[in-house]
Write a structure and sequence with these properties.
The protein has helices at residues 9-40, 49-78, 94-112, 114-140, 147-168. It has 174 residues and is mainly α.
Length: 174
């Protein structure tokens, strides 16, 4: 029995991407970095800002693995060929599904170039990973970090968040 109201793969993938981007990056790590930056600049006082940032940075490896999975599954989940795994197209015979989904996927990849978007997202993730790891090591060693380190981490988070958002748009066929 097919469920015509079930979400398609792209919707599920995009919901996971949105949750990570919004909840973990923008409302988690980005806010912790901003607060800590303001404390270092003397704009606000918050004795716990460093601990909050360190907690966010400590969660980063788990979050990074989840993000990497999203990036690596993006092409398959966002391709219009994924529609052939869903009703009513999944009712086609296997030969027809394989042929049609292959044609549509090929055309989509020619126009959208999702591998390029995926490579950009992986590069942005690497830059963010380096910035987060360096800052975490500084804080764990009892240091406070400097403005350059904080700025680099904030820019890496913002850049990665935007790159991840752009990746979600590759489902839109030109």
């Amino acid at each position: 029995m097919h469920d015509p109201d079930s979400s398609c793969s792209a919707d599920i993938w995009n919901a996971a991407r949105s949750r990570i981007s919004h909840d973990s990056l923008k409302n988690g790590l980005a806010i912790a970095l901003g607060k800590y930056s303001n404390v270092l600049a003397g704009v606000v006082e918050d004795a716990d800002a460093g601990n909050q940032l360190l907690a966010s940075l400590s969660h980063w490896p788990t979050l990074r693995d989840e993000i990497l999975h999203l990036i690596r599954t993006g092409c398959e989940e966002l391709s219009p060929a994924a529609l052939f795994r869903r009703w009513p197209l999944d009712a086609l015979d296997e030969k027809s599904k394989d042929m049609l989904s292959s044609i549509i996927d090929g055309r989509w990849r020619e126009g959208v170039k999702p591998e390029q978007w995926t490579a950009e997202a992986e590069d942005a993730l690497k830059r963010m990973d380096i910035a987060c790891q360096q800052l975490k090591e500084t804080l764990q060693a009892g240091g406070v970090g400097d403005a350059t380190q904080i700025t680099m981490a904030r820019e890496a988070v913002a850049n990665f968040s935007e790159t991840l958002s752009r990746l979600s748009r590759c489902k839109d066929w030109p």
